């Protein structure tokens, strides 16, 4: 080949490389970046709706129409027929039924992060995983130390949770003034936190096991795996199998929402027969979860009657202080101290653009434990008085953590000016 022809060949090869790089970048944006951006946008709006629903529930439960509120969520109805009929009150249909979709979406997010997101690289995942672990263990220990035994100690899992919608929503509202690494770090911690919360619910907050029903539910999950391996792309076989798995999980004593978690984790994260199944499901179901299911859940569970001397009783209650201190002190110190130890020892490094001062703001925001904390409260207590005291502790701890975290991050952005995104 002549030397005169070489520049043309090199140019052609360079163009081909550029085309491949652009195509690869487009795939990364379609499969990783866009889902994350869509997630953050939905969580921001969802957080606003969640707050509005919680305020509405509190106002309704403390109004002259409070009896209507409690009667509404106590209405019973059933679904199914004969031996497969399930009857429960409206609040438990929300908590056991609709919240299965919420946990299914959470599992989809976990699967995406593990396969294509920030948690796919063990070294990158090490720091948020360790930080989340510190933010789970210390709150539970503080709670148990303050409550000091008795029936109230059953709620030790309540201060372990972080509400992604509220926490990510606060960070998103701060916009470009915060480095992208801060958002990534908080999101990673919240997702690992969800993994731990799901394990805790399945292990410690399920009822006596029915071995036959559990075996049938597991057989249903195996059927889903076989359908996928057989290349079945139609939706209806998976929908029928999913309904059966939910029913037998509900009958087994394991909390029914765990069926949603298992099905979400079995969803293929990479293209299946030419379809981005996980991405499509997430795009369709995440708005439903964030804009409809979670606000309904808050409306059903946040209605605590604060009239009379309820706040005075809460202030004198070990349960209230255990939940509130577990959230604020446990989350902030647990995440902050573990992150400090991990970075100083070289086990992990902070994301680009994030300083250790940001860690304290993120750790305080993680104390917003609204949704999953309320969910665990419903599982932990059958005594309405204990449940209400725990919910008041959740409200107080989440509010204080949210204010501390927001104030810290706002103060840092004002001191440092606009940081690169």
From TrEMBL:
A single Gene Ontology MF term assigned here is: sodium:proton antiporter activity
Q: What is its main location?
A: membrane
* Cellular component terms per the entry's GO annotation: plasma membrane
* Entry keyword annotation includes Metal-binding: no
User: What domain of life does the native source organism fall in?
Assistant: Bacteria
Q: Which residues cross the membrane?
A: 44-61, 124-147, 153-175, 184-205, 211-227, 232-248, 254-273, 285-304, 319-343, 355-377, 389-412
Q: Where in the cell is it found?
A: Cell inner membrane; Cell membrane
Protein keywords: Antiport, Cell membrane, Ion transport, Membrane, Sodium, Sodium transport, Transmembrane, Transmembrane helix, Transport
Biological processes per GO annotation: regulation of pH
Question: What chemistry does it catalyse, as a reaction equation?
Answer: Na(+)(in) + 2 H(+)(out) = Na(+)(out) + 2 H(+)(in)
InterPro entries for this protein: Na/H_antiporter_dom_sf, NhaA
- Family that this chain belongs to: Belongs to the NhaA Na(+)/H(+) (TC 2.A.33) antiporter family.
HAMAP family with a match to the protein in the record: NhaA
Q: What does this protein do?
A: Na(+)/H(+) antiporter that extrudes sodium in exchange for external protons.
The entry's protein name is: Na(+)/H(+) antiporter NhaA
């Amino acid at each position: 080949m002549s030397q005169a022809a070489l520049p043309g060949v090199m140019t052609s090869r360079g163009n081909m490389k550029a085309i491949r790089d652009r195509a690869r970048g487009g795939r990364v944006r379609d499969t990783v970046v866009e889902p994350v951006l869509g997630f953050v946008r939905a969580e921001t709006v969802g957080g606003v709706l969640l707050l509005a629903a919680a305020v509405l529930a509190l106002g309704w439960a403390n109004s002259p129409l409070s009896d209507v509120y409690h009667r509404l969520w106590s209405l019973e109805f059933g679904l199914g027929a004969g031996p497969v009929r399930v009857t429960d009150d409206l609040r438990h249909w929300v908590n056991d039924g609709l919240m299965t979709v919420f946990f299914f979406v959470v599992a989809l997010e976990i699967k995406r992060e593990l396969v294509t997101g920030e948690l796919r690289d063990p070294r990158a995942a090490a720091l948020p995983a360790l930080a989340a672990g510190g933010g789970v263990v210390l709150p539970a220990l503080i709670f148990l130390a303050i409550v000091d035994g008795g029936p109230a100690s059953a709620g030790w899992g309540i201060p372990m949770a972080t509400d992604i919608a509220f926490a990510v929503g606060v960070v998103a509202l701060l916009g470009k003034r915060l480095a992208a690494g801060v958002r990534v770090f908080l999101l990673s911690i919240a997702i690992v936190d969800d993994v731990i919360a799901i394990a805790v619910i399945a292990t410690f907050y399920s009822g006596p096991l029915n071995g036959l029903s559990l075996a049938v539910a597991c057989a249903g999950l195996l059927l889903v795996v076989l359908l996928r391996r057989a290349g079945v792309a139609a939706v209806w076989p998976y929908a029928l199998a999913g309904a059966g798995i939910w029913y037998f999980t509900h009958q087994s004593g394991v909390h029914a929402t765990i069926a949603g978690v298992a099905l979400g984790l079995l969803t293929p994260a990479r293209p299946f027969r030419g379809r981005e199944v996980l991405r499509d499901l997430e795009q369709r179901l995440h708005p439903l979860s964030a804009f409809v299911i979670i606000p309904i859940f808050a409306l059903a569970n946040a209605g605590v009657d604060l009239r009379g001397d309820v706040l005075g009783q809460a202030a004198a209650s070990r349960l209230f202080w255990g939940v509130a201190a577990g959230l604020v002190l446990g989350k902030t110190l647990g995440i902050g101290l573990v992150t400090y130890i991990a970075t100083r020892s070289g086990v992990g490094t902070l994301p680009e653009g994030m300083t250790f001062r940001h860690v304290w703001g993120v750790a305080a925001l993680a104390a917003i434990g609204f949704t999953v904390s309320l969910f665990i409260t419903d599982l932990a207590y059958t005594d309405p008085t204990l449940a209400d005291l725990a919910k008041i502790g959740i409200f107080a701890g989440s509010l204080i953590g949210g204010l501390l975290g927001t104030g810290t991050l706002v103060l840092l952005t004002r001191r440092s000016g606009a940081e690169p995104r």
